[in-house]
Design a protein that fits this description.
77% of the residues lie in helices and 0% in strands. It contains 16 helices and no strands.
Length: 414
């Protein structure tokens, strides 16, 4: 039975009829500002102190490394414990960690900033599957797309503020102030989630390894899900890692520094907002086909840095990238919440995120050597081509055009 049919609150109505969902949503909107602010501030800190592509990649890759190391643990916990409590504790942990990092910033070599981002990423990994799994327990099936669209709208709006705040704080008052602002957002997020009671999901007793195997088996039985997860993994490694590593360097060299960097990142988040509105209202029959075709445009992010394009055009291309990613994400997340059983949802969502980030640290690690070996232009061109080809290839897998419906039969044992 699909997850959302076993634990959803009854009735339909509107999102305003579900105050517990709105309370959780409000807290996570605040925390999303910190999510964006931290990497922007730290990457600019590295660039302003003479760091190159390798050092920037190390800082950005640290967050991805923390996600990879802890996402599956977060997914297992989300199917064993109260999901609202996990979200609150994860936000509290990140607030304390960033206050400590800010106080010790002058004593930390730039190389150790990667450790800070690993630890922040670990906190994000522990809370993210719980938050995504909590949504379908707070809303009826009929409101899932609208609920996920509102979640994305809040996160993307906060990402705009986070990108601008991170760039502005790092440039005007320093990295320490930026980190303290981020800590404040996580503290507020934790405060708003405390008191939202959500019991642990029903589950059969099993080991942690058994839980992980159950999640992997659920993905394996759905080839359409496995294909999209694999393609996303490659796209993020080849596209996101290259674009985000070289963007601050290109911005400093060609566009005048940190404010242009923050503007491009903010445009990505702003571009996602129209997609959130569209996905909340439009229900195409073949949502997978629509999602994967528009996602080809994400290849434009690294390609726009070739040359590069003038700043206004670069901003426009990154805004389009935010639009297509968000349209894909709302349909994709809603499909998983509908198709995956409740007792497996946390693990599958964790595996989805783990797959997305699994090769990201490797992607960051390879950017510097690739630029040294092939040049910046060839690296950006190859990045765009890989993103486009892998996205289109998923449409050849049965079930991808509909985002569901095709699954392998479950094995039975005697």
């Amino acid at each position: 039975m699909p997850a959302v049919q076993s634990q959803n609150p009854p009735g339909t109505g509107t999102l305003r009829s579900h105050p517990r969902f709105l309370r959780v949503w409000g807290g996570q909107v605040a925390g999303a500002i910190g999510d964006q602010l931290v990497p922007v501030a730290l990457s600019l800190h590295v660039v302003l102190h003479g760091g190159g592509a390798g050092t920037v990649a190390g800082v950005l890759g640290g967050r991805a490394g923390g996600l990879v190391l802890c996402l599956l643990i977060g997914g297992v916990l989300a199917d064993r414990m109260s999901r609202s409590a996990i979200v609150a504790y994860a936000d509290t942990y990140r607030a304390v960690l960033l206050v400590a990092t800010a106080l010790l910033l002058d004593r930390l070599p730039m190389g150790l900033l990667a450790l800070a981002t690993v630890l922040v990423g670990a906190g994000e990994a522990l809370g993210r599957p719980a938050y995504r799994s909590l949504v379908p327990t707070l809303l009826p099936v009929s409101l899932l797309e609208k609920g996920n669209a509102l979640v994305s709208a809040g996160l993307r709006s906060s990402a705009v503020l986070g990108a601008l705040a991170g760039a502005s704080a790092a440039a005007l008052v320093g990295t320490r102030a930026a980190l303290l602002i981020a800590a404040g957002t996580f503290a507020f997020a934790a405060f708003t989630v405390f008191g939202v009671r959500a019991p642990a999901p029903d589950r059969k007793p099993s080991s942690v390894l058994g839980d992980a195997r159950d999640g992997l088996r659920a993905v394996y039985r759905r080839p359409w899900a496995m294909a999209v997860m694999a393609a996303t993994c490659v796209q993020i490694m080849a596209g996101t890692a290259v674009a985000l590593t070289l963007l601050p360097i290109v911005a400093q060299r060609e566009f005048g520094g940190g404010f242009s960097y923050g503007a491009v990142l903010a445009a990505t988040a702003l571009g996602a907002l129209p997609a959130v509105v569209l996905a909340g209202k439009w229900r195409p029959k073949r949502r997978g086909t629509v999602s994967m075709l528009v996602l080809v445009c994400y290849a434009g992010l690294p390609l726009s840095l070739l040359g590069p394009l003038p700043l206004p055009w670069t901003i426009a291309v990154f805004a389009l990238g935010g639009f297509v990613v968000e349209l894909f994400f709302v349909y994709w997340l809603s499909a998983l919440q509908r198709e995956i059983p409740a007792e497996l949802l946390g693990k599958v969502l964790a595996l989805d995120q783990l797959g997305a980030f699994a090769l990201l640290p490797l992607g960051y690690a390879l950017v510097g050597p690739a630029v040294a070996a092939f040049g910046e232009g060839a690296t950006l061109l190859g990045s765009g081509l890989i993103v486009g080809v892998t996205t289109l290839a998923t449409l050849l897998v049965p079930g991808v055009p509909e985002f569901g419906g095709s699954s392998r039969p479950q094995r039975t044992t005697r």
